What does this fold into?
Amino acid sequence: MSAQPPSSLSTDDAPPVAVTNATSELKQPPAEKPSDIRRRGYVILSFWLIVLLLGLPIWWKTTTIYRADLPLQEMLDWSDGKACRPVFPLRISIQANSLQDQEAQNLLRLTQHALDDLNDFAGHHLRLQLSPPLGDEATSATNNGSALTIRLSPGEATTATLDPYEPTLDITYPPNNIPSPTASSSALATYVASQLRSTFGEEQATISYLLSTNSMPSEHRPLGLSPETVESLAKRTTRSLKYSPTYHLTFSLFTSGALPSSWDIETAIEEYMKPVLDVLSPIHNFTIDTQVQLYAAPGVQNDVLQKQDLSSFINAAEWPLSPSIGGAPTINFIVFVGNQTIVTSPESESSQSWLIPQWGTVYLLSQPWDTTHVSTETLKQPLLTFTSHLFSLLGTPQSGSLPLRLSTLTRIRSADLLLRASSTLGSLARLALALPSISIPSSVADGVSKTMTHLRLACDNLGGLDGLEHARIAEAEAERAFFEKSMVGQLFFPDEHKIAVYLPLLGPVAVPLIMGAINEFKAWRKRRREKAEKGAEKKKE
Amino acid sequence: MDGKVTIGRTAGLYIGAAVLRLAIFTLLPGIPDLLTGRVEISTPVTSFKRLQEGLFLYNHNVSPYDGGVYHQAPLFLPLFSLLPNASSYPIFTYLLYIAVDLLSAGALWKIADSGETVASALFTSPRKEKRWNGFIIAAVFLFNPFTVATCIGRSTSVFTTCAILHAIAKAVSGAPFSAMVAITFAGYLSLYPLLLLPPLVLLCYDRQRIERGIKSVIPFVATNIAVVAGIMGLLFGMSYLITGSWEFLTSTYGVQLTLSDLTPNVGLWWYFFIEMFDSFRSFFLGVFWLHLSCYVGGLTVRIRQQPLVVLTLLLGIFGIFKPYPSISDTSLFLALVPLYRHVFPLMRYTFVIAAVIMYATFLGPAFYYLWIYAGSGNANFFYAITLVWNLGQSLLVCDLMFAVLRDEWEVERPEMAGKEIRQI
It folds into this structure.
């Protein structure tokens, strides 16, 4: 406002003596006093001092974007799979109590050879070892951390059976099948190798599928997956829920009329489902709630449900099915009491239940119209169905005995989480590189370093429960860092917009400031020149 | 205007002003609470309602700054808790506010009688005969509707006004220590008066030089700044003892510096910061505060001969550009303007200024009503009228500055008196 003081009523460039022009009526103002010139200089200086000494530091301090240092190259290495080769060293113990040590060693060597010949996927490696022959079978199998124990025992013919309760493969062999110490191949060894291969086939396929869908370098990428396998694996992967340490199970009884109005769900869960949940407990925790809803109208009223009806059967608008309680994802198990049946195709028999991918299961239960109470026995079949569907929803492989399937689930989930956390890290690194103006708060750098620590631990312990735990933490940290709120807000603020922010206010302020400084500078130069000229004239005289 | 003011007339003026206020307080009991709630009078940092909230918390041994409603200085709390409860015995609060207004008027009277405006240490106006005496100046202040409304609305800014006027009065009467104490109190209450320090110290210095012949300026300035720092430290220490923590610093001055409460007021900040991108908020807070303070240096240098003019113009500028202005700041500026009666003839836009200020005064509440209560307008309505209001005030500031500078210039060029001039 006073940068150009109104008192400067006389011009700077007025000549020292007024020009006396007879025709001009304008009288030139007298020259400015030196004190006035100096004062104007001070005024302009006072404004510029504030701008330069206070304004610039404030501008610098408040608008520089804080970018914490991220280990970008390492993050990209993780997402490219260079930092960690997911290798699952599976140890398999052989118990051959009836064999001589020498014979057993020999058999083991031959079997390992046969296995190595069969195996085409480096990431999934089976390694055989002899277990101490006299050790207690159950403890030795769990203690030495082997994934499977092969019990060799002499018998009539060559047979193989999986123990349904323990990770044990029982193989019988005719006594004359023991390979001689000098033999370079043996039918028994080949048989054992092919048995092992078929046992772990599904796991191998799943892991190689996971690796191939992620951006792993091609040398780790297994080749031998047939399109059908890929398709079925893709189907299974889309069906299963995202990994979470805790799931919430909701059991709902919906009835089309007023009856039945109560059910023995607690004892039924205790009896038919609890054992499975207990087995799953190292991998997942479960919380459970139940509800009963009378006069619940399904989304489809037909008596016979076609395949296309199944997707609209859930009456999402009216049924009280909360999407998620607390932080844990919800899995819904619905028993619907009504007289509807499912016929998917004319030739197949009618079924009772269907699975909704990543959501849950519906079981149609037909009851006599006057049933008031659903007993535990009636609930047996629905709950067994739910249990087997729960496995599918959790992404458990389908073949093999239960203990094997669970340990496979652990490994698959670890690999999945590891890959997902790595690719999130990679996305974050690419984001940081692509948007130089995005701010990176220190919490993000924190999350990244935590993620990498846990990824490293997970990578070193792949295959065990520790590995799963570390992979889970790594994934959670990576997601938290990627979705940091203060970063997302800055995403859509390109540099061009800054002009629109600065100009409207600072433009009008800057014009008088800069013009004042320029005018003052010009006047100063002119005064200097005049002084110099005067000095020169004096010298001449 | 005869220059002679009898004791009877003085008493009459004060009693008249007191009776007017008391009558509004008691005969129209709805008015005080109505005015207390008006955004034009009560800002988040001066509101009486918020003071009562803080007082309630304070009296119940809770930190008054809990809840984020109270943003005023902690020393108000013991003062107001000495008074009986404002809702059951409001008369004591009324009397306190009336007394503060009368004290301000007394200080103003002293300033007017000192003649500092027409004849400062370095400059004597050629029109010095033409000025109003203290009686008229005090009367204009006391019966200014803005002053009355601020008093009735019990905004705590009256205490700041009183402190600033006393600081000036002490400075012109040659008591730099008291002046510094008063300005420190004002700065303690509302922070921005500290920006008045440079011209005020110069005013004290000029006066001292006449009376005591002090030569060197630097020790004088240093002493004064030390006094301000010492008193401020003392006040902060007392506040710390009262509230038991340093929380009050962020809750009072922090709110003014960061504008965390965006309640609308007659100023220009709130709307701007509602619209501001979050990432630029701190930068523009810096810009706005620098803009507010950059006038201090320039004006002080330019009108070095008349520091009181600088103080007046700065108060006008603060009334426009400070973070939480209210009509109380305008009333302070308008109280000082009549001291320049001698340059009124040199002002060019008096009619426009009066019209714009009246226009905004009447339409402001109407537009606020349209926005908040009727819902037929939006925030832009109210913001537009505050722009007009501030335009009126800045016109007044500019015109007064022009008149004062022209007055100075005519000393230099007596032959130009009364002629049309233009800036080249």
